[in-house]
Amino acid sequence: MTSAHPATAAHPVTTIAPRLTTASPIQALLTTDGYKQSHRQLYPAGTTRILINWTNRSNRLLPGSSHAVVFGLQAFAQEYLTEAWAPFFAASEDEVAELFEQELRDYFGPNAIGSEHVRALHRLGYLPLDIKALPEGTLAPIGVATLTIENTVDEFYWLPNYIETALSASVWHPGTVATIALEYRDLIEKWAAATGGAVAGIDFQAHDFSMRGQSSLGSATASGAGHLLSFLGTDSMPTFDWIRRYYPGENGLLGASVPATEHSVMCIRGEQGELETFNAILDEFPTGIVSAVSDGYDLFKVLTDVLTEPALRARILGRDGKLVIRPDSGDPVDIVTGSHFGDELAAAGDRDRSPEEKGVVELLDEEFGHTVNEAGFKVLDSHVGVIYGDSITIDRATRIFERLAAKGYSSDNIVLGVGSFTYQYLTRDNLGSAVKATWALVDGEPVDIQKDPKTGGGKKSAKGRIALHRDASGEIVQTDQATPEQEADSLLQTVWIDGAFTTLQSFADVRATLAAERTARAARAGA
Fold first, then answer.
1. Could you give the domains of the chain?
2. Taking the model in full, what pTM does it have?
């Protein structure tokens, strides 16, 4: 048989069976900053308890936002504290001790760490930790601790700060994304109210396109879940499995999308074949919503030439569905709303403006028409729509809505494709997220710990034991150096202790908690 690919025939490929490996039984033990291996020996003799907390200390990303969404802890507790440590406890004591000694001997050289604490933990058979937290979905004020972790067995005072690295690496990103997604939700709802936009479509008006630009599939799935706390539109499908695994329950519709093209589909027939491509799309999807990337060659030619071809235009208007046009390059604000705005638009007067000056929404309006909603704003004919899928930010989204409103268009004429430029272009510092120890027990005496650097930077930590309560307005407030009575009545309650959950939230419950928090926030703002 002749090979279909000459290069393959000329250069036969030798295949190698996939290499299947399993995680080292001490992998979870090594999932920490290397320097933390030495801390057990550096705490004062007689230390038996240490309490740490997680706090979002600032909001550098969204300066106008005073709260952050609590999200990601349950996934961390299942994935790392439960699943990742299982091989450690399943292996033999000698094996884990020997592997640990070998790893640390190579790592620290002559500075001995020892392995007795590893043997002791293995003999105990579980992680002796008590995690207290706010319910996920809570809107926590910036500066308020959202969880605390404390050891439950004296010998393992070193463990709370030991797991800090894994905790931080696991929860900052989904919580930050959930906070940003909520900001998009607030923005879209604001402009829907101002311009009479359809509320029913808001769940799908910010669409997650970020998976390909994330740092890993793991970060993409966790980030995608943060987005889905506020919206239903997503193309990050692996997120569904992540949610079902870590937030199981009757979760209802997690997310959805529509059939859509990419540039490989739109460009395979070449620029002269774009009309044929659009017809092929409508042949394959004669009803419902379908989205087409339209900037493979000349976006404005598509809008003014291809889509205006009489037969195609008639097909679009005759469909039981919507053809969504997706520009994907250029400045999102100018592309969607036109490069002439404000004084420039007024100065243009009645002259025939260029397609670039008009923008996608206005050009679709000219060709396919519009209706006027009850608020007096124009809504594109229901057979066409617009989604912009690249480099959207809160600032750009705001300017798009501002310009659309100024030109008389309602906010629901655009769907925002939110990608990695929003959800991956982040760091732990965006919310100032950090873990700090605030309390210890040494020789039976309580010790309040506080970091308070003279060099500032917003890094002053809480002090002592921590309790959270709601004030008269319903806002969460924090009490440092809390008494046992204040802790007993705190909003921080145990969710995971000594290797097992005491509370599990479904994703639907997290969504419901966030919805209730938003309602309460609005009530406080209106009081």
1. 28-175+432-526 (3.20.140.10), 258-423 (3.20.20.70)
2. 0.94
